[in-house]
Design goal:
Blueprint (H helix, E strand, L loop, with lengths): L2 H11 L2 H4 E4 L3 E5 L9 E5 L11 H21 L4 E5 L9 E7 L31 H7 L5
Antiparallel strand pairs: 1-2, 2-3, 3-5, 4-5
Length: 145
């Protein structure tokens, strides 16, 4: 399968057109359709790629900046105690990362935001929060700041 087709399929599966919250030069953030923890995001390359070895130095630099933005956002705006970053690409071949804020207790009176804590997230298909929830989108958009 071509990288162009992988990219197109990836964008359809993860609904990036409707769930995108920040686009940078080389990378974009979108809300993850399945929300195993509150505020889960996808970070993906803006061009068809299937491997880190295909990145330019500029793309690597912005990748580092993007991961820093996510970590800061999760800790400062969502009160996460850790962030988990998964790069699997076993099913979806386009270059992307699954970004998960991790919580050790309920935040702001909400119910448990992370049923997997303190273990790794064992089922990425589970969704405990609606990605269309206005509050989730509002909080996730804070990544722009």
């Amino acid at each position: 399968m071509s990288e162009e087709k992988n990219y197109k399929d990836f964008k359809l599966k993860f609904k990036t057109k409707s769930l995108i919250i920040k686009k940078m030069r080389y990378w974009s953030f979108s809300i993850r359709p399945a929300q195993p923890t509150f505020g889960s995001l996808i970070l993906f390359s803006n061009t068809p790629k299937s491997s880190l070895s295909q990145l330019s130095q500029e793309e690597y630099t912005e990748l580092g900046e993007s991961l820093n933005i996510f970590s800061n956002h999760s800790e400062k705006n969502l009160n996460a105690v850790k962030t988990n970053i998964y790069m699997l690409m076993l099913v979806d071949k386009h270059l992307h990362f699954h970004l998960f804020p991790r919580y050790d207790k309920p935040i702001n009176g909400m119910f448990n935001l992370d049923i997997f804590w303190p273990s790794p997230i064992s089922d990425l298909s589970k969704s405990f929060f609606d990605p269309n929830d206005a509050e989730l989108i509002k909080k996730s958009k804070l990544i722009n700041g």
